[in-house]
């Protein structure tokens, strides 16, 4: 393994690809989900749904329950499922997602922390045509081009290696029954009812730093 050069972490981070050197210690690998952790999928969905279908019933954010928006809308009216889908497969939907408050400065600060590597781990829709390229565009626009090398696209997040996965989806299943990561549930309206899980409620009160420091001690 190469010896580390005599430069500080800021210099290394400014490169497009962060290199791995033998510092005699392991870095904490943090996987950050994109939708509803960095980008506000649910809030933007309601705005667009109401613009497109102003005469239809919709679910207020504080009434959201269960991961899939489509499932809850279909319970209101079974014809709404196709309308829900039409909103998020439309060109520009993923690119225009607003930032979750405080997420971008927190992600940048986390990535600059000593002993921490940060990746963005996101699942594409099966209707990938707009969603996939727009996820990359969103990251480039909000975090910068140097983050493009840190995007992991995976339908099955259980096979991805990392120490922590911060993700709003409360149950993450896949072909690996014992994923390497510990799941920290990022609180969203749809998952508030899920109990007994380690959570991160927001990016603004600084508690994310405590979680990262705690896990750094454990690896
Ligand atoms: N709450 C959601 N309802 C429907 N679809 C959703 C929701 N959150 C995310 N999605 C979509 C958008 C993403 O492309 C995939 C997976 O998202 P991920 O945040 O990586 O679990 O599903
Ligand atoms: Mg998500």
Automatic annotation (TrEMBL):
GO molecular function list: 5'-nucleotidase activity
Example of a GO biological process term: pyrimidine deoxyribonucleotide catabolic process
Active-site residues from the entry: 33, 35
The name this protein goes by in its record: Uncharacterized protein
Native species: Patella caerulea (Rayed Mediterranean limpet)
PANTHER family the record matches: 5'(3')-DEOXYRIBONUCLEOTIDASE
Annotated GO CC locations: mitochondrion
Annotated Pfam families: NT5C (PF06941)
UniProt superkingdom: Eukaryota
